Q: What sequence folds into this?
RNA sequence: GGCGUGGUUGCCGAGUGGCUAGGCAGAGGUCUGCAAAAUCUCCCACACCGGUUCGAUUCCGGUCCACGCCUCCA
């Protein structure tokens, strides 16, 4: 809201309450959506890294124009229709190793709470029922409206875009708290003191965040496009109803672009997580790409970046393997893991500066390799380094330090590799090369490691 | 029209009033039977024009360009 970094001071010492606008479950989420959820996960993990006890709440919007429209098109009851996409969403979160939220409240399970909130607004005179029977929030009653998006209502484009069905509102900018039922809603309807209908989008988040995090909580996140009007409206409703501050810190992440363009179905650059997995990319590499760009900067998604991420992670995997295979005794390396950890912590504490944090991983990798090259890295140091990367991964969640890469190499390939080692010992280079070619036909490459060892890679 | 963000070396991407971020790609060297891996060196940039300053990529002003939001898209 202040548009500058601020020190985080929680409502309750030692804990952090965080509300995240979750998916509208009418389809599979796309990687742009997951950019936001990955950013929020990073924030969650960094707060935990700094010792906060994090309570994250992510809502599921399972009733709105789109869910109703598409469930009717599919000929399914709303709940049944959205269940499929909710399930898919959870699978996707798992693929991206996103820390589970404490609660995933669904809008349709909280209608009474929303009605209660709307009633409070009615009682206090902030809301009114229009001729169309819908309930609207009167923006004129909330002078601070626009303080989050820094929008001055006077200077906005006037209502060229008003739809016919919105003429009932007192003021163009007023937004719906309760939408009166109409034929397009089919059997989607709930009873309320104002007649049948369904809640407006904004009121969902206010009612649910209040229920699980309290009237004033620490952090609210979402994509930039949610800033206005969605979050602005949440503030208006919540602060009007409760008479106290709604949220202390707002963090919005920028959009994801594909090849420099906005992702859209018509441009054919629209990808779901599943699309990428089907192309053979790993969840870890996708996570790396989504994570490695600062949240307030537009992320330009490219397949080159994705391939590079795969390479980077593979290099780390090889590095971790090397750190496991060090000599027991060696000269002193003088490497101080605490130094790298401090840098990592400082970087993340500075408004989630991931680039600087990742640079620490690369620097440590280089320094450790250098020490190992000169025979100055004993296994004890290697273990300390591995421990540190395990710690780093508590935040990054994609290094898989202890994931064994030995995905069941066929016995015959291992056998060929052993034969090749023997040939090399005898300096029979012709046989060695022939065996290497043969191993290649199985899809593996051998690399020699000093000391008569070898490594097989797919 | 209003509000806002940003333009960094071939590409991606941090950061700072003077001190090589980092990654990828490229060139050369070391190591290795070869290859791979690893490592070293090189490639030293900050849109443009003014101003402030001993000194600006970093601060200020202006220009150009790109992008986002302005009612339900993360």
A:
């Amino acid at each position: 809201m202040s548009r500058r970094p601020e020190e985080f001071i929680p409502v309750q010492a030692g804990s952090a309450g965080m509300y995240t606008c979750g998916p509208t479950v009418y389809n599979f989420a796309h990687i742009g959506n997951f950019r936001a959820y990955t950013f929020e996960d990073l924030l969650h993990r960094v707060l935990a890294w700094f010792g906060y006890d994090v309570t994250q709440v992510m809502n599921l919007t399972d009733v709105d124009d789109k869910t109703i429209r598409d469930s009717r098109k599919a000929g399914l009851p709303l709940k049944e229709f959205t269940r499929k996409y909710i399930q898919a969403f959870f699978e996707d979160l798992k693929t991206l190793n996103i820390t589970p939220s404490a609660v995933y409240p669904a809008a349709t399970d909280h209608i009474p709470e929303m009605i209660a909130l709307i009633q409070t607004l009615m009682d206090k005179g902030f809301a009114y029922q229009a001729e169309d029977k819908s309930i609207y929030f009167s923006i004129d009653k909330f002078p601070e409206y626009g303080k989050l998006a820094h929008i001055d209502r006077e200077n906005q484009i006037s209502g060229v875009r008003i739809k016919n069905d919105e003429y009932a509102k007192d003021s163009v900018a007023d937004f719906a708290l309760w939408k009166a039922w109409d034929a397009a809603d089919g059997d989607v309807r709930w009873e309320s003191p104002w007649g049948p209908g369904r809640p407006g989008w904004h009121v969902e988040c206010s009612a649910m965040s209040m229920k699980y995090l309290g009237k004033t909580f620490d952090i609210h996140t979402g994509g930039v496009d949610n800033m206005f009007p969605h979050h602005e409206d949440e503030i208006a409703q919540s602060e009007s109803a409760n008479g106290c501050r709604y949220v202390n810190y707002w963090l919005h992440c920028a959009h994801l672009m594909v090849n420099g363009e906005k992702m859209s179905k018509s441009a054919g650059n629209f990808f779901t997580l599943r699309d990428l997995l089907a192309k053979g990319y790993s969840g870890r590499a996708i996570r790396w790409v989504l994570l490695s760009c600062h949240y307030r900067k537009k992320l330009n998604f490219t397949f080159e970046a994705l391939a590079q991420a795969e390479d980077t992670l593979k290099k780390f995997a090889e590095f971790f393997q090397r750190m496991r295979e060090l000599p027991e005794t060696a000269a002193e390396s003088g490497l101080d893991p605490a130094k790298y950890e401090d840098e990592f912590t400082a970087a993340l504490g500075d408004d989630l500066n991931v680039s600087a944090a990742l640079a620490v991983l690369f620097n440590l990798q280089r320094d450790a390799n250098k020490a190992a090259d000169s025979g100055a890295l004993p296994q004890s140091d290697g273990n300390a380094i591995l421990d540190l990367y395990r710690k780093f991964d508590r935040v990054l969640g994609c290094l898989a330090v202890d994931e064994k890469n030995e995905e069941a190499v066929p016995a015959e390939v291992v056998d060929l590799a052993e034969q090749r080692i023997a040939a090399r010992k005898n300096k029979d280079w012709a046989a060695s090369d022939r065996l290497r070619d043969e191993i290649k036909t199985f899809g593996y490459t051998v690399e020699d490691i000093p000391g008569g060892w070898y490594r097989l890679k797919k």
Summary: The mean pLDDT of chain A is 89.
